[in-house]
Amino acid sequence: MLASAATQLLEHYDAHARVLPWRSPPGMPPPEHYRVWLSEVMLQQTTVATVKPRFRRFIERWPTVEALAEAPEEAVLQEWAGLGYYARARNLIACARVVAARGGFPTSEAELRKLPGLGAYTAAAVAAIAFGEQVAVVDTNVERVIARLYGIDRPVAEARPEIRQLAEAMTPADRPGDFAQAMMDLGATVCRPKKPACLACPLSNDCAAFASGDPERFPAPKAKKARPHRHGIAWWTTRDGAVWLVRRPAKGLLGGMAGLPGDDWHHDGVPTRTFATVSHGFTHFTLDLHLVERPEPAGDGWWQPLDLIGEAGLPTLYARAVEAALSRKHELAD
Ligand code: SF4
């Protein structure tokens, strides 16, 4: 079944591969290593639709890994604004500098893994797609496809070693990069979490979940853990049409990004003087960020003209906080 499933999947990929700015067409030589690496880092936790235009802009601004290695960190963080998970941007710069200094990317999964910011998934994806190494590339989409194909009805967290073994056994020696991308495409567009399009799936003849008549049941959902909720304060200080912004400390959440000054987000409940609040979900907690007016600016920062706020490189949380503050001020003025 394994060999035939891989062949069928590659045939399907040849006809239906998604056209993406970081890819080569099926069966063609791989794209530049830099493009593969950059796209895989951008795609960690961010959707293809969001990444596409941002990838193009990034490549125009820094067309090679050497150019990126020489870029000032602040410029890269600003370009990254809105993509989230800012530790990725900092690792991106660190990695570009290591790669430029050694004269290029290492070519094996094991060596790629040693670069800053390359976890197991990204190292495997770059090794398979850019260098044709026969390694399994397993993300959450691929885990779901394999669990369904083999009728694994336990939660993925429990079945992970088994799923990985099956993925390794399925990965062909020929075209492992195309195979990895075919699996990613299948998980994203056909074997979706809800309502998988089994009738359009090249693996349906071999698929245990499809044969069961209820493919969505595979794998079992993971038990939901409630995320803790926090409150934080952001200081709102304006003068002559400008708002006071600071750069966040390099380490920690949104590290190195521009933002409103404030506390450490461990405020005990809602502050009485707040005039606007935005809610935001991080991976490990949810946050209500309360805006509080403050007459004098706090911390080292700068006055950012409000009509140029789009150029400040604010991450989504602070961009939304500024929007909420301005709209509330507008309401109060009416
Ligand atoms: S047949 Fe359906 S459940 Fe099975 S792999 Fe294809 S899309 Fe997924």
In short, what is this structure?
The protein is 45% helix and 12% strand. It is of the alpha+beta class and 334 residues long.
Question: Descriptors for this entry?
Answer:
13 helices, alpha+beta, four-stranded antiparallel β-sheet, Endonuclease III, domain 1, three-stranded mixed β-sheet, binds iron/sulfur cluster, 45% helix, Nucleoside Triphosphate Pyrophosphohydrolase, globular
Structure description:
By secondary structure, this protein is α+β, with helices and mostly antiparallel strands. It folds into two domains: 2-217, Hypothetical protein, domain 2 (Endonuclease III, domain 1), CATH 1.10.340; 229-333, Nucleoside Triphosphate Pyrophosphohydrolase (Alpha-Beta Complex). The chain has helices at 2-16, 33-43, 48-61, 65-70, 73-80, 87-102, 109-112, 120-131, 140-149, 156-170, 176-190, 208-212, 316-333, and strands spanning 229-236, 238-239, 242-247, 258-259, 274-281, 286-293, 301-305. Helix 9 crosses helix 10 (156-170). The chain is globular and about 70 Å long. The protein binds iron/sulfur cluster. Iron/sulfur cluster (SF4) is lined by residues 145, 148-149, 190-191, 196, 198, 201, 203-204, 207, 209-210, 215.
